[in-house]
Amino acid sequence: MVKEEEEASASQASVLAVLASNENGLSNEDLMKRTTGMDVKARGEAVNVLLSSGKIEMLPGHTSGAFILRLRKGTQIADATHEEQLIYSLIEESGRKGIWIRDIRDRTGLSQTQMRKVLKVLEQRKLVKSIKAVGTTKKCYMLYDMVADESLTGGTFYSDQQLDSQFVETLAHICVAMLQSKRKLSEDNHKNDPSAAREFAFVRSTEVAQFIREKGVCRVQLSVVDIESILSVALLDGFIERRADGMYRALTAKMTRCAPSLCPCIHCPIQADCKPGHIISPQNCEYFVTWLGW
């Protein structure tokens, strides 16, 4: 009896050692190839014990009916069925970006009915939650306490999947006013030196962000990236200019620029995503339409 227990323990240790050296897991066939000296029955029993104890986990393979065995990376949830643990592990792995319901179905191989039943149980236990990403009605799942990535929520300037345009407009106005004040101060301090007046009128985005924080004009904690997004709006509206080194300066009302420099595409922060026929395209760009009517 003792000998059998020792052999079983040795088999489990061998399986764990093999899986430890393959962090992405192995198919059953690959595991067999790497444990050729192990009895088939002993290997099967070792795998079952390790699965039951939560030391390893089973994930769907790349082909129908196939599966992958690997060391458990995620959390072992109490009183969960194999299907519940499987889906929970996939959702946990997805992190802040979440996982689409279609990907869950494809990776688990579960039927639509079975998958939805499991997701409902996990949601009722407040282990996972579903959200709808900006620009789509499809559901995305993530852990219940996880804060969704900005690529899903739209970031600071979105509320209930809608862009808070008034909030953006107000912040843009404050940023422009700050840059105008900075420019006036620079011109007043360097009346006899146009070059210096121009140079000291430029401001870094970090300075604008610091100004917004110190004034307490916004309850939301805005990052420098958030402020740069707002400055991009003011830039496209023609209220400010941005130098090659990334510094900003207010433009005066009487200043004019040549038509090519006014093209919004030059300054657009999402230019790379803009393509004809896509969600972001020249056809539905209000800045592009305005420029064409210049």
From TrEMBL:
Superkingdom per UniProt: Eukaryota
One Pfam family named in its UniProt record: RNA_pol_Rpc34
Keywords tagged on the record: DNA-directed RNA polymerase, Nucleus, Transcription
Main function: DNA-dependent RNA polymerase catalyzes the transcription of DNA into RNA using the four ribonucleoside triphosphates as substrates. Specific peripheric component of RNA polymerase III which synthesizes small RNAs, such as 5S rRNA and tRNAs.
UniProt GO BP: transcription by RNA polymerase III
Cell location: Nucleus
Protein name (record): DNA-directed RNA polymerase III subunit RPC6
SUPFAM superfamilies for the chain: Winged helix' DNA-binding domain
Family membership noted in the UniProt record: Belongs to the eukaryotic RPC34/RPC39 RNA polymerase subunit family.
Principal subcellular localisation of the protein: nucleus
GO cellular component term of the entry, any: nucleoplasm
